[in-house]
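Hey, I was hoping to borrow your eyes for a little while. I've been puzzling over a protein and I'd love to understand its fold better. The fold is given in discrete form, as structure tokens running alongside the sequence. I'd be grateful if you could look everything over and explain what you see. No rush at all, and the record is pasted right below.
>
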Amino acid sequence: MPGHSMFSLPGCLRGAAFWVLVYSYCLLCACTALVKLLCSILMRQHRTFHRMNREVAPGCLNDPFLGTHCYVRIKDSGLRFHYVAAGERGKPLMLLLHGFPEFWYSWRHQLREFKSTYRVVALDLRGYGETDSPTNKDCYKLDCVIVDIKEIVDSLGYTKCVLVGHDWGGMIAWLVAICYPEMVTRLVILSFPHPAVFTEYILRHPSQLIKSGYYFFFQMPWFPELMYSVNDFKLFKDLFTSRATGIVKHGCRFTEEDMEAYLYIFSQPGALSGPLNHYRNILSCLPLKHHKVTMPTLLLWGENDAFVEVEMAEQTRVYVKNYFQLSVLSHASHWLQQDQPELVNTLIWTFLEEDRFHSKD
């Protein structure tokens, strides 16, 4: 039948077809990973399970020019959150939400840049870094994470903020903006489309399904944690340094100290399970019941993003019922704010200064 697809099936069949697809692809990803692990054991048995001992934090994580390390305990969950803050108290709040597999340090360039005008707060999300990491997988449902952000804004003494999110932090930022529109004055998203666009696009485009294969692989217990840690976190390192997925721009590549900062955080006991548990709950509030984003929005995208296809960026426009600006950065990878920090900062400044002329507020 012309135009026939999973989207034309009755609701119950569509749901069943979706879950068959999810678990089938999960099994395929797991088998692929298992083959890679077995090859590694056969070829480099003595190195496969070797890990460097990382007990001392690299100096860059305590650089006073990046800001002050702080902690806040929120009422709803009782969890203690870690964040780094720069800029004077009382200035407008700019809240930064990192992606996977990252932590507050991914915003080091923005902490320096925006502290002149904002109280800039780079958060460690639930389960990441020095923030508490519940062991129960259900504690990472998106509903819980969204409430985290609202309570953190309240605990910091603010009612509104400029909300900035990258990758998985972008997903969370979209949902916060949808659920608590009164709290978000301006929304800046890097490298992630509106969640409704993502869920529809991934099922219609096999190429994006393949690029998002890790979502399905992460549904498995313990095995993804193992794969990310073998060969002294080689897979983890490759995400940021390989030609296919990493930062390749000269002068912006990870220094040895930058990489060690990431490895120090994620090599701590149990440090991978919290971040992966976010993905194990990705479908907890999808598909969305509400879609509209009502505040001015800037969406930044890397032309060479290895994980999300640029076609989703333009499709996001329909869900923003206010001024919407899209900028696709030439030769940029998925790790935008670290790949091209000067350009990203300039685009954010321009948006914050100019969008008032377009705002429908």
